[in-house]
Write a structure and sequence with these properties.
Elements lengths: L10 H10 L4 H11 L9 E5 L6 H11 L4 E5 L6 H13 L16 H14 L7 E6 L11 H6 L1 H5 L3 E7 L16 E4 L5 H10 L7 H15 L6 H20 L8 H15 L10 H9 L12 H5 L3 H15 L5 H5 L20 H4 L4 E2 H11 L8 H12 L3 E4 L9 E4 L3 H10 L13
Parallel strand pairs: 1-4, 1-5, 2-3, 3-4
Antiparallel strand pairs: 6-8, 7-8
Length: 447
């Protein structure tokens, strides 16, 4: 017997629906009750909200397609203006008929035009006697459109005098949508985050056919034990599960362990899962590159010592500014002459080594430096001449905003601002490598 009950749909359809939406039985049951029978008028509008990857879009698509209900599904990020949104709804409405699978373009400039064209299409498609569902995914984008769009969709059933229900899918609560002038309140339904037990059940459901369900469930249990504290996004966890399963199976494939030897399987994959934690969400490398690196026992988290997001985001001179800031933070000010003057003569490290400098500056941490010292080092290490323009100063501010530099003291200091560089040695070496700058030559600790 299925958990879902509805007099209009056969038991086989409801059983199939139940198998397609695990861990969302309560929400689907509520939606079935709200929808009622095809010819019944439903709620004018339904507002479904929950965090990213909580199953809102998937559940709605699966429910409407499995029950074969007439519906239009629109992503408000793709249709980012009201005109694009209204035209896309009308175009999809045309394609609901079996004769016209690809709707023709319907120009629609205003919401008044939309109401008139929508009523015509309902009659043309012979949909007067059943509920039509309009699903607006990423509905928070509606707040950026004209003021009449959101209230119009909330009252679409009333304005068209047709059996239509508008469903909003959003990641934010209804209180952030409600206009100051008031509006027709929708029925709200919350999709909670998946618990660790829910994630275990859903991920284990998609096990490869060549391996037993228990074997894959044990793998998912290990995966969630590592990643659940830092990532609860179902899509990302499915990606990680598919990416690392081959490595987990290696001892079984080689005949070194059986499927029940959990300790040996965990020992084989432990280091690789820890490396994968460095690139959660980043997609720095493709799946094929990851597998190739795993076979070579390489470091997937450090592509030749360079994280992909370390150099893509920074402009050319911002990289040199960051390098100059690092040198100013970790080199004593007395050594600038040694590193940045062409005719400084020979200066040995032992000649000016003080007692407190016997400890590595990298162990003591970054020291503050004034703005003029930063610019002096920048002009020394950049090959071409750089004018102290507003562009350079704005890039310093951007580095502070990105927390690569830290402003020390107050902004209103008379002697000028002071900064600290907060990046690690590995990070700055990766940055320096992208501009062909050997930073080790200019660091006092490595003389």
């Amino acid at each position: 017997m299925p958990n879902f009950e509805h007099p209009q749909y056969p038991e086989a359809t409801l059983l199939h629906l139940e198998s397609m939406v695990p861990c969302r039985e309560s929400q689907v049951s509520s939606l079935l009750s709200i929808f009622g029978e095809r010819e019944h008028f439903s709620f004018p509008s339904i507002f479904i909200y929950g965090h990213t990857s909580s199953g809102k879009t998937y559940v709605m698509q699966t429910l409407l397609e499995t029950l074969e209900l007439p519906h239009v599904f629109v992503n408000c990020v793709e249709c980012f203006t009201s005109r694009l949104l209204l035209e896309e709804i009308l175009t999809q409405l045309q394609s609901l008929s079996s004769e016209n699978k690809h709707g023709s373009y319907v120009p629609c400039d205003t919401f008044n035009d939309f109401v008139r064209l929508f009523k015509q299409e309902i009659i043309t498609q012979d949909l007067q006697n059943q509920t039509v569902y309009i699903v607006l995914d990423k509905a928070e984008q509606l707040r950026e459109m004209e003021a009449n769009v959101l209230p119009g969709f909330l009252r679409l059933q009333e304005m068209t005098d047709r059996n239509v229900t508008v469903i909003f899918l959003s990641e934010i609560v209804w209180e952030l949508f409600r206009p100051n002038t008031g509006c027709l309140e929708p029925f709200t339904l919350y999709f909670p985050d998946y618990s660790i037990g829910n994630l275990q059940k859903i991920l284990s459901h998609y096990h490869p056919p060549e391996y037993s369900a228990d074997f894959y469930a044990a793998y998912i249990n290990i995966l969630l034990g590592v990643f659940y504290t830092v990532c609860r996004d179902l899509k990302e966890l499915r990606h990680l599960a598919a990416l690392n399963f081959t490595k987990y199976c290696e001892p079984v494939v080689r005949g070194e362990a059986n499927e029940r030897d959990t300790r040996r399987l965990w020992k084989n994959i432990e280091s690789h899962l820890k490396k994968a934690m460095q690139t959660v969400y980043l997609r720095e490398i493709s799946s094929s590159q990851w597998e190739r690196i795993q076979q070579d026992d390489g470091e997937p988290g450090h592509l030749k010592g360079l994280s992909a997001h370390a150099h893509v985001e920074l402009p050319y001179y911002s990289k040199f500014l960051l390098i100059a800031a690092y040198l100013a933070s970790y080199n004593p000010a007395r050594t600038d002459k040694r590193f940045f003057l062409k005719h400084h003569g020979k200066i040995k490290k032992t000649n000016f080594l003080k007692k407190h400098e016997k400890t590595s500056n990298h162990l003591l941490g970054p020291k503050p430096f004034p703005l003029d010292r930063l610019l002096a080092i920048l002009y020394s290490i950049v090959d071409n001449k750089v004018a102290p323009t507003a562009n350079i100063f704005s890039q310093i501010t951007s580095l502070v905003t990105l927390q690569l530099l830290t402003l020390v003291g107050h902004d209103d200091q008379l002697d000028g601002p002071k900064y600290k560089c907060t990046v690690s040695l590995d990070f700055i070496r990766a940055i320096a490598r992208t501009v062909n700058f050997d930073i080790i030559k200019y660091l006092y600790d490595f003389l």
